[in-house]
Write a structure and sequence with these properties.
Elements lengths: L1 E3 L3 E5 L2 E6 L2 E4 L11 E3 L23 H6 L7 E4 L4 H7 L10 E3 L7 H5 L11 E4 L6 H8 L7 E4 L8 E3 L10 H14 L3
Parallel strand pairs: 1-5, 6-9, 6-10, 7-8, 8-9
Antiparallel strand pairs: 2-3, 3-4
């Protein structure tokens, strides 16, 4: 077995395996029954935060906000203005969750960053979104942003961290089928060669 540091998408011999709480499955067409060669080594007390649907062929939206929230994660650092925060709840439908992907910092005890650190590498198929940042959280969020991560870290608050890419919903249709978009983004990811 090949150790994998977290849940999510893992490639081996041009095959893509998705590891979730319910187990693993191959996402390549007609190879769904293949056994994954990967073993997840994440702490057992951390629950996989996503339950992705079957990949679905079709055109995808090529928009920075959509890419940041899709199953195709690159460990980027992003900022969403508080007035655009409602879009996070729309776009999170692309990565259906079994756990929280969007976490309000208002509900976390201090030290807040320490509580989020294990989540940064828990998966590579769903973002970690932190909302309701206060100016007093800036130092902790800078520390958090400097850590290695396998998923996108999206912060929403009045202050933008240096190096964070601003995400705006400009040009997006609020009535778009975001769940289907997530399945199509996943299909596109599986078909793309490493």
């Amino acid at each position: 077995m090949i150790p994998a540091p977290g849940y999510g998408l893992h490639r081996h011999d041009n095959l893509v395996f998705l590891h979730e709480r319910a187990g693993a499955r191959c996402l390549n067409a007609r190879l769904e029954g293949l056994t994954s060669p990967f073993q997840i080594v994440a702490p057992r007390w951390l629950i996989c935060p996503h339950q992705l649907g079957q990949p679905e062929p079709g055109p995808i939206l090529d928009h920075p906000f959509v890419r940041a929230m899709s199953p195709d994660q690159d460990g980027g650092l992003y900022h969403v203005r508080p007035q655009d925060q409602a879009w996070l709840y729309r776009l999170v439908r692309m990565t259906p969750s079994t756990g929280r992907i969007i976490e309000s910092l208002l509900g976390l005890r201090r030290p807040k960053a320490q509580r989020v650190v294990p989540l940064l590498t828990l998966t590579n198929a769903a973002p970690q979104v932190l909302t309701d940042l206060e100016p007093s959280d800036l130092v902790e969020m800078e520390t958090l942003a400097a850590l290695p991560r396998s998923r996108n870290l999206i912060l929403s608050g009045p202050i933008k961290l240096p190096g964070a890419t601003l995400l705006t919903p400009e040009g997006l249709d609020p009535d778009h089928d975001w769940a289907a978009e997530g399945r199509r983004q996943l299909h596109h990811l599986v078909r793309r060669q490493p």
